[in-house]
Every structure is written in C-alpha cells, then in structure tokens.
Amino acid sequence: MQQLPHSSLSNLPSAWLNALSSQLINEESILAWLEIDLDHQLHFATGIVIATDKRVLAKMADDGTWQTWTYQQGLQLTQRDHAGVGCLELFDPQARLAFWRYRLSNVMAANRLIECFSQQLDYHVSGKLPESSQTSAQCPHCGAFLSAEQDECPVCEKQNHIPPSTWVLLRLWRFAKPYKGRLLIGFLLTLCSTAATLVPPYLTMPLMDNILIPYQNGKPIDTDLVQFYLSGLLGAAILAWMLGWARTYMLALVSERIGADLRTTTYEHLLNLSQEYFGGKRTGDLMARIGAETDRINLFISLHLLDFATDVIMICMTAIILVSINPWLALVTLLPLPIIAWLIHLVRDRLRIGFEKVDRIWAEVNNVLADTIPGIRVVKAFAQEKREAARFHAANQRNLQINDRVNRIWSLFTPTVTLLTEVGLLVVWVFGIWQISQDEITVGVLTAFLAYIGRFYIRLDSMSRIVSITQKAAAGTKRIFDILDHVSSVPESANPVHLPTIQGQIELRHVGFRYGTRSITRDINLVIQPGEMIGLVGHSGSGKSTLVNLICRFYDVTEGAILVDGHDIRTLPLAEYRKHIGLVLQEPFLFFGTIAENIAYGKPDATRAEIVAAARAAHAHEFILRLPHGYDSLVGERGQALSGGERQRISIARALLINPRILILDEATSSVDTTTEKDIQKALDNLVRGRTTIAIAHRLSTLREANRLIVLDRGKIVEIGNHAELMAREGFYHRLYLAQARNVDEEERALISAAEHSIAGEHK
Amino acid sequence: MSATVTYQLTRNSYGRLVLTDQSGVMHEGVIPVRSFPITDPGQGIALINSHGHELAWIERFDDLPETYRVLVESELAGREFMPEIKRITEVSGFITPSTWHIETDRGPAVLILKGEEDIRRLTASSLMITDSHGIHFLLRDRTALDRHSRKLLDHFL
User: Fold this and answer.
1) Do the domain assignments include residue B1?
2) Which one of B38, B61, B79 terminates a domain?
3) How much is the pLDDT for A745?
4) Which residues of B touch A43 (CB under 8 A)?
5) Could you give the CA distance from residue A578 to residue A564 in angstroms, rounded to a whole number?
6) Please, are residues A351 and A410 in contact by the beta-carbon 8 Å criterion?
7) Which domain of life, per UniProt (chain A) (predicted)?
8) pLDDT recorded at residue A9
C-alpha cells in the first residue's frame, strides 16, 4: 500500500488539501482518507479522516484544530453500519477515542481507510512491512477485484446517475433506423399527396375570376374552360386519394414493425435484468409498460405523427402559395400562426405532467389488480373482499381526480384554438374586402385564400391535438426507455473470459452483500473444493439464501469477490456461467407445457432418451408414467395438478439434465413431508454425486452427507466442520441441532397424544 | 404510569450501552429499536442485545426514569437517520434519475432519485423518498411545503 499514495494526494478534495498541507510533518504521506458527511447528531456536515504513514488525522469543518492519533499498540479502527449510516470508531484498550458518521456512499473509502490503518499499525507495532498487495488489480474507487482484461470497474460503472435527455421521442430513431428506406418512400409519398390536395383551392381562383365573375358581368360561360378546370379538380382529388392510400399503408406497415421491435427488445432487456430489479418492481406496472405503452407509441407513429408531418408540410406549402399570390394578404392570414404556436407551447408542459400522472395512476390501478388476483385465496379466507374493493375504488378515485385536473386544462385548449380560427377568418375577410375595394386583388384571390385558410386552420386545430398525443407518447417512450436504460446490476463483462468446462472450485473472498441499507453478509471467506458437498446451516435470515444467490450471480457482491476456478464470476459471461450451475429450489416452478418440455427447460435440444434418463435418475419416471399422457402430460398453470414432491422431482430432473458441475439445493426438501423427503433424498443422492454441491436445509438431518457444514449467523461464518466435529465442539451448531431434535421429539409426542385422544374418543 | 424498571442501563467508556438485568448479567452493546419508526415513533421501543434478542420492552418513553430516557434517546439520535425534507430548492430534471437539492431538518443535502417508485406514499400527505444509496428521506406533510417545492414535487407524483 505504501507504493500507491503520492498520486492519490491529488485526488484529495481541494477544500481539505490546503488545510492539510500545513499539518503534515516531514515526509509524511497520505495513504487513505474518508470524507465525513454527517456529525454526531446525524446532521449534514463535512469533515475528513485521514490515515498517513505516521498517524491518523481528523477534522470536522467547524472544528478549529485537527485531532491526531499516532499509531501505537492497542489502537483499533472499526466500522459498522445501520440504516444507511456508517459509523467509524477509533478505540484504544480503555475507551473509545473518537467516532465519525457518514453516509454509506463512502463505505468503500471507509474500508480502504481501515485496511491502510491496520497495515500501518502492524508496521509501527511489529516493525514488519505489510505484505505486498494482492496480485489481482483492484478498482481505485471501490476496491473490487478486477480481472486483467477489465479496465473499468463494473461496480462503479453502474452507479452513474445521468438523467436521460428530454427529447425522448427522438430516441425511438434507434428502432426506426432499420426501416430508413421505407420511411423515406413514405415521406416522399406524403409530400406528393399533400401537394395534390393543395391543387383544388388553387383552381377556385381562375374558376371565380375567369368564369363566374365574367358571367355575372354578362359574359356567357366558356364550357371548355369549365371542363378543363373541373377535370383538374377531379384529377387532383383522385391523385391525392391514391397517394394518400399508399403512404398511409406504407407508414402503418413500418410503424407496426417498429412497435413490435420495441416490444420484443424491451422484453428481452427485461429478462436480462437482475433479480434486484424484479424485486423492486410490481408485475402490473411492468406488464402495462410493455403492453399498453408500446401500443400507444405504435399508434402515435402510425397515425398521429404521420398526420402531424402532413400538417407541417401542408402549412409550409400553403404559406408558399399564399405568399406567391399576394404577400400582404398572406401576411395577415398567417399572423395568428405564431399566437397559436405560443398557446400550444404554453399548455404543453402542464399537459405532459398531467398525462404522466395519468399513466402512473393507471399503473397503480393495475397494481391493485395484480396484487389481489394472485392472492385471492388469502382475500377470501380473511373475508376482505370489501376492503380490496375499497382499495380499487380509491385507486380509481385518484385516477378520476387527476384526469379531472388534466381535462380542465385540456378542455379549455380546443375551444380557444377554434375561437382563434374564427377571429383569423374575420381578419382575412376584413383585410380582403378592403383590398378588393382598393382593386389590389380580385374576388377569386380572396375566395382562394378563404378556401386555403379554411383547411389551414382546421389543420392547426388538429395539430394542437398532437400536443397531447405527443406528450402521451413521450411519456410512454420515457417509461419504456426507463426499462431499456436500466443497466443490469449484474452487468455482462466487457471482455468476458470463456470457460467451456469448469472444475467446480468456488472461492469466496471477503464477500459482503448489502441490500438497500441492510448489510446481509459480511466478510465471508470460504474455499469449496471441486466435488465437495457443503451444507449451509443457520437460522432463517442468517444469509444462507443470499450466499447462494451471490454464487448464482442473481446479485453481485457489494464487497469482495467470488471466484470459480480462480476466475472472478463477474468476468464470465452470465449465461455461460449459469449453465454450469444446477439449481433446485424450495418451490419448484413449472412452466405451462408438457413434462418433457419442463425437464428439458435448461437444454431444449435434449433427446427423449436423455429426458427419460434424467427422470429415472430423479425418481420421477414412474409417477410420470402413471399420468394419463406420460411425458406429454401438460403441467404448470391450467395443467395437470402435481404434488409438491412430484414437482420437486421434475425440477431435480431438470437440473440433472444440464449436467452441471456446481449444484445448489436451496431448501429442496423443506416443503414436503418426511416420506416424500426420502424419495427426493434418493433422487438428490444421484444428483449430488461428483458435483460441487451447496445445500441449504432446514432439517439438519438431511445434511449428514455433507463433507463440511458452514454455520452462518447474522451474515457471518461462525463454525466450519462436519457433523461430528461440530457436535463435539458444542457450539452454535450443537445448540441448533439440539433445539431441532427437541422440536421433533415434541412433535412426535404431540402426534402420539393426539392419536391416543382420538382412540380414547372412539372407545367412548 | 411510571412502571418500575427491572434492569440497569449505563454507557461504558467504549460508548456502548450496557444493560444489567435482574440476575446481574451484563449485556454490552445494547441497541434501542423503535417498533413503528414512522407511524408512531414514541410507542414501543425494544432494547436489543448484540445478538438481536430482545432484552426489554419500553411501551412509552414516559415509563422510563429520566436518566435512562436520556440515554436511550441519545443512542437513538445517533442511530436514526431519516432526514425530514423541509424544502426542495432545485431538481436537475423531471426525468429520473434526478438530482434534488433539498433542505432538511438536518441541514442542506443532495439526493439522487433513481425512479418514481422510490417515492413511497405513507398517507395521503406524507411521503418517504429513498435515494440511490438507500437513505430514507421523510416528507411529513407535502401540503405544508412552500409553493415552489410543491410544484417541483408534483412532477414526480
């Protein structure tokens, strides 16, 4: 650690650097520091604790002087945390010398500080130089082990919190890109069809000036000319119809595909997110996002965006035509446009927030349903139907409330645009009549203007609608991209190490895991040899399942590292790594499908012979044959009802089929009775043979086979050894075992007495 | 009612609470824990030993002798960290993750909101906001906030 430091001095917050430089005595170098962000009463305040090669220094911003402690025998620096606040304490043998509190964002710095402190203390007390630091590189920020290929730390990387840009809709371009060509054709078609629709009003001008007005003035009607103009009108209409059909069809086709891509991409991404993500989300909300939101975006692209584009093109073209006919009248006609644009802008923000709220409340309504329907048995058993109905009613009520508020603004919006339209028309009339009276324009020009402007303002009206629809789509897009932007908290390594086969050696190095602010496991060190069977023992909540989840990489360790055959599991490709692991859970989950499909879930290309062999080894073959359709029987939701033990044996067969080197049994036999357990145990014995096995079991008797038992208590390893050794030690395991044995005895006694009672009852 | 307390409570030189029970057994590192930290902080405080087992139950603070009450309260003050938001001065954006500059009863602070789902509704007017490091910020009454804060907050609800 001593070789590191001078460069790190420059990383020290500049505010402290000046204050500190006067403090340092000859050639003292700073090794580590911790920024303190809370005071003793847990108010926000700043301070710093520094470990140098001579002593420990500390100062809070308000303190006048630095506190210092030189390294000496018996000094001790420890940290603990509770509810997101860490506490660093400095002890000597007699008392606590000082303590500091900080938010857990600094926990890595605290650990580094303690590490440096204890190394220096060792050096000052015993004169021994600290061992050179580990061979594997460590992240400078968080201390996680990095493999040779990794430059950036995967742990730090995921903690970036950069908000996405506001122009979320533009991000949909990622999905539109593959359809560039077709989109371009669609755009050209839109241009042409819009141009075609602008021909008829233009023709009203000569119709008026060259035919109708001269006729009123006594000239006969020129039928040829009338025919020419009218056929022009018809031709333009038919052309517009055809082009309109082509572009609508083309763009709908594309948008449908974009929508489908969006849906599948989102779902794929969702599946790759860690379990942590699913733990924090509600099913109803996620389902609504993938289903309803993608549909809304889809509709937006195919219908509203298309309309809007047409409108913009039409307005531009119309403006050009109007200016070319008469610039002054055009100016007056176009005057309300900026006002309307300003109005649209004004309402935009309010509406967007409103619509986002509507969406969120809608997800809440869904959540109530998603909560209640799966738990319907509990609802009915406790007769809480009324309460659930009230909950749904309340959610709906809030939905109404928020919708009402949004509608209040929204309902004012459209009539205002209509009013402006009318006022605009009025202005054109007034100015037009005045210009005619001045002989500046003909009646035909005014008619053409009025015809154009009619369309023009109608389009503006519908354009104003795009505001809300765009906002809704943007809100939906944002919610979709919320999922897409969520980086899995178990990120795939950038330069993965491929291990086609593994030995099955697992090493846990200083493993710590924190869920939220709760520290669940701390500093676990363990090496499991290939082929060894390990039993994890401890009270519930002692961290057994967490450890298993960490080994499976459902979560990533917050501190330390897990190595398989010497490789950090964070450097292995996830899917490849998990292929080496067979997992049998307490509650086996069967998908809807045949038994054969369920057994072959981890290896879909398995042959029938393999499936049968796996089922035989799992002692599932016979009961499967007893089912009406054998291996083709449907199971899972809406399928054949299987007992817990039967389902468990299918899941054991599933694990057997992928032939994993590492096997994890998470309370595999807890949910079944003792007789079934024996069946399952036989199946498990086949499974365990020759594999590295980690078993969690509540019933200690099922772990007799284990080579070693690891006894966990509150996130720490307290004892290691086999059954006999641990019993002889009379420690934690011994107590646990006795407590359980007593329970079993009591259960049996209770059973016997109950049986006696019932027999006695019968005799009476 | 001031119930008689059957144990002794002291603080040792290591800064730990020590509870000596009736049979004279000393428990070092006793931790007070509130049962309802949000809904009813004053009711039901348990004294827990370092193994997580309950040693004593305090129904109400008033049940404790004055000296013990001060001890327990000071220990709680050093353990509980739920800053109460008094004002939201600035938010970086209405799209999460968003950085909020806030004023709390424990001084000004910055929190990073990862997603709207980290805002938990406690009652109609009170909220609990969890930041990216898992620290809980309490908003006791959002109707009592000033107009600016309410407006900013409203974007996220």
Assistant:
1) no
2) B79
3) 62
4) 106-107
5) 12
6) yes
7) Bacteria
8) 47
The whole domain housing B111 covers 85-154
* Cβ neighbourhood burial of A436 (10 Å; 0-12, 13-18, 19+): middle
Q: What is the ipTM of this complex?
A: 0.81
Q: B15, A166: Cβ pair inside 8 Å?
A: no
Residues in A touching B132 (Cβ below 8 Å): 159, 161
pLDDT at residue number B83:
86
pLDDT attached to residue A704: 74
A96 touches B: beta carbon within 8 Å? yes
Taking an 8 Å cut-off on Cβ atoms, the answer to whether A95 and B117 are in contact is no
Q: 0.80 exceeded by the pTM?
A: no
Nearest-CA distance A99 → chain B (Å): 9
Which stretches of chain A drop beneath a pLDDT of 70? 1-13, 128-167, 280-282, 284, 340, 344-345, 347-350, 352, 457-458, 460-465, 467-468, 471, 515-518, 637-640, 670-673, 743-764
For residue A640, the model assigns a pLDDT of 61
User: Is the domain A6-133 a CATH 2.30.29.30 member?
Assistant: yes
CA atoms within a 13 Å half-sphere pointing along the CA-CB vector of A413 = 25
Half-sphere exposure of B74 (CA within 13 A, CB side): 13
- How many angstroms separate the CA atoms of A287 and A267, rounded? 10
Cα dist from A626 to A394, A617, A632, A643, whole Å: 50, 17, 12, 13
Of the candidates A52, A51, A50, A48, the one whose C-alpha atom is nearest the C-alpha of residue A62 is A48
Residues B104, B126: one domain? Answer: yes
> Residues of B at the A interface (Cβ-Cβ below 8 Å)?
13-15, 51-52, 77-83, 92-99, 104, 106-109, 112, 114-117, 130, 132-136, 154-155, 157
Query: Residue A142: what pLDDT?
Result: 47
Q: What superfamily in CATH does domain A168-485 come from?
A: ABC transporter type 1, transmembrane domain (1.20.1560.10)
Q: How close does chain B come to A398, measured CA to CA in Å?
A: 11
What digits encode the pLDDT tens for the residues A588-614?
788 888 888 888 888 888 888 888 888
Residue A44 contacts B, CB cutoff 8 Å? yes
- Chain A contacts of B97, Cβ < 8 Å? 161-163
Q: Is A445 exposed, middle or buried (0-12, 13-18, 19+ CB in 10 A)?
A: buried
**Which residue, A712, A693, A713, A702, is CA-closest to A671?**
A702
Token look-up 């329970």 returns A743
Given an 8 Å threshold on Cβ–Cβ distance, is B80 in contact with A83?
yes
- A84 Cα to chain B: minimum distance (Å): 5
User: What residues of A are in contact with residue B117 (Cβ under 8 Å)?
Assistant: 280-282, 285
Question: Distance, in angstroms, between B28 CA and closest chain A CA?
Answer: 14
Cross-chain CB nearest to B77 (options A42, A95, A105): A42
Same domain, B98 and B138: yes
Which residues have a Cβ under 8 Å from the Cβ of A151 and sit 6 or more positions away? none
Query: CATH code for A581-659?
Result: 3.40.50.300
Does B35 score more than 50 pLDDT? yes
Give residues 149 to 168 of A whose Cβ lies within 8 Å of B: 159, 161-164, 166, 168
Report chain B's mean pLDDT, rounded to a whole number.
83
Q: Is A45 on the interface with B (CB under 8 A)?
A: yes
Tokens at residue A33, please?
């520091």
Contacts of residue B104 in chain A, CB cutoff 8 Å?
44
Q: Would you state the pLDDT for residue A437?
A: 92
B111 CB neighbours in chain A (<8 A) are: none
Residues in contact with A332: Cβ distance below 8 Å, sequence separation at least 6, in sequence order? A427, A428, A431
